[in-house]
Design goal:
The complex is a heterodimer.
Chain A lengths: L10
Chain B lengths: L2 H24 L7 H14 L10 H23 L1 H5 L10 H14 L6 H15 L2 H9 L5 H28 L5 H23 L1
Helix pairs in contact in B: 1-3, 1-8, 2-3, 2-6, 5-6, 6-9, 8-9
The chains are: A little secondary structure, B mainly alpha.
Chain lengths: ~10, ~200
């Protein structure tokens, strides 16, 4: 998920 | 998801619920900075723009909707609710929060993970959240009495970011060394701003 640079935190 | 982050999210949710309770139960928003609430609404709108494009988890999506709607509800109450809006002390809430928005935006244009619309909005929301509490802290220091619920609201907001710092430390050691410096630095600044409030809160 880090690769896609999506921010998984609120 | 680790315990620190979950605790942080729950503390953050609780702080918003405490504020909604105070405003709804007492039909009063005295001592609450409307400017801080407006800044938080901008923070959530800028950060949760990916609500409809990136599905991360049910929890993530539900919490985003809750934060956006609750912050909008608080701003609506303070602006439109006939009883509540009368109790807003406009003369006290004088912080020029436009300056905070402009500064966060300029910072986001310079310091971001990638120069894309989404990433600039995300960095903007992180920087703005770090300073969004300032109008509220100024109001608290001006006001004679810090009423319990407002004090508790600010306390939980400070605790939430402190839990997130533990979460970043935990993720640093468990998930490898991804660059989270934007979150780290802003989170430290944000928690630092609360430090003097905690000092007075506990001494009160």
């Amino acid at each position: 998920r880090e690769g896609s640079h999506s921010h998984d935190e609120l | 998801m680790n315990a620190f982050r979950f605790l942080g999210d729950m503390t953050h949710l609780f702080s918003v619920l405490v504020l909604l309770l105070k405003i709804y139960a007492t039909k009063s928003c005295s001592g609450v900075s409307r400017k801080t609430q407006e800044l938080y609404m901008v923070v959530f709108l800028a950060r949760y723009m990916d609500l409809f494009t990136d599905y991360i988890s049910l929890y993530n999506s539900v919490m985003k909707v809750v934060f956006i709607t609750s912050s909008a509800a608080i701003v609506w109450c303070m602006r439109r609710h006939p009883q509540v809006r009368r109790t807003y002390d406009k003369e006290q809430d004088t912080f020029r929060h436009v300056v905070l928005v402009a500064a966060a935006f300029v910072l986001a244009l310079i310091f971001n993970e990638r120069f894309t619309f989404r990433e600039i909005c995300w960095a903007f929301s992180i920087y703005l959240e770090a300073v969004a509490i300032l109008p509220q802290l100024v109001l608290l220091q001006r006001g004679r009495n810090v009423d319990n619920l407002t004090g508790q609201y600010v306390f939980f907001l400070g605790a939430y970011r402190a839990f997130y710092i533990l979460n970043w430390i935990y993720r640093y050691f468990t998930e490898g060394h991804h660059s989270r410096w934007i979150s780290w630095l802003s989170g430290l600044v944000q928690t630092g701003l609360y430090a003097d409030f905690f000092y007075y809160y506990f001494l009160r």
